[in-house]
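Contributing new records

If you add data, match the layout below exactly. Sequence lines come first and carry their own label; structure lines follow with theirs. Keep one chain per record. Anything else will be rejected by the validation script.
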Amino acid sequence: MAIEFKLPETIEKQIRGVQLVAENVMRPESRRLDDNEHERPVRFVSVMLPQMQEMERGNIAAAKARAAAKKAAVMAEKVNGNGNGHGGIAVAEPPPAADAVEKEKKPSVATLMLVHVIEALSWGDAGQYLCLPAGMLGGAAINAVGTPEQIDRFLTRFTEGEPKWGAMAMTEPQAGSDTGNIQTTATFDAKTNEWVLNGQKIFCTSGKLALEESNGLVVVWATIDKKAGRAGMKPFVVEAGTPGVIIAKVEEKLGIRASDTATIIFDNARIPADNILGDAEVKTGEGNKGFKGAMKTFDTTRPIVAASAIGIGRAAFEFTRDTLAKEGIRMEYGKPRHKLTSVQVDLLEMEAQLKAAWLLTLKATALLDAKEENKLESSMAKVKAGKAVTQITQKAVELLGPLGYSTEFLVEKWMRDGKINDIYEGTGQVNTLVVAREILGYTRNELK
């Protein structure tokens, strides 16, 4: 698969617009919002709302097309399969239309567009970026495994009216990276045709925005059969206003302070039977496609987290480079390494780490747009970007000394904001295990 490094004009135009928002809307508010945690970035939300609603309309159309194509493929399998329809005789498919061939030649660039937008917004302010009025992780899960009816019912709200937020709730006090230890339960009540949720979720990004401050939703992971382990885990859509859903706490954090991170309690919260995403049947082994299919959401979102990390890293690197250049310390690419000062070597290393992470992210993104498997590449991008942003922002503070440590500039804030990218969406350690499993071909138990 070829990767084209020249960006389409549509993406370049989009980036120019987003960069203006980052410079003129986000940056001026960064320090104030960091100092006043839980205050909402109202101006940023209002500026981005029309664009996000348009993007969500495109996401819904694409998701419904994928779901319809999948359904058609299943029906074709039944018709052409042994013992069905035509008694095992394959039915010849008509040749593809000319416009379909043309589309095949031009793969989608939707994810490529998205990672560039997220990188630029995170350069502006990562906390504000996380307040984008959109389906976000919850929407990604619904897009990935929801039926066309569910996609319409749950996601249309993000295309119209007032700002709304989506979120995903997976982490629990005893189950962070160990997703198999989730204790939140979903019990089916046949009398009322409802699922009853009980349990607690923590560190839910935008949980309060989704459930209390808008007509949003949260995709909640719960087990319908504890004995079945991961096979018993299912995602459920919980909408704002559901009785028995309580925002118990909003975290005070090291970084991304404009974004809310909530603790949610489910106390006999009742949701409709068809709010489950995927099959309610518990399947083990190869048949357990529910958990595996939903987890593929992270193959989509990990490159996005990597792009956010790179945006923060770029902000810190560019500020450090430009500040030192004013003092006469400039990057010199033509000199051999041993003739450079230690500060110049540090700057070159920061830039190299940034570009390496970006190239891995672009590869994972290109595979996504080409509809190819990207589990290995998405985890590699996430690991590399998480480490890179941590190293780059810490080095920026170090090189700038008192200026870097002072709140007069945003460098110390970028260091605090950057660290989360090494933690959420699968910690660096967990994603390193994913990479090892993919490369070595080991099972989970073998790697342990």
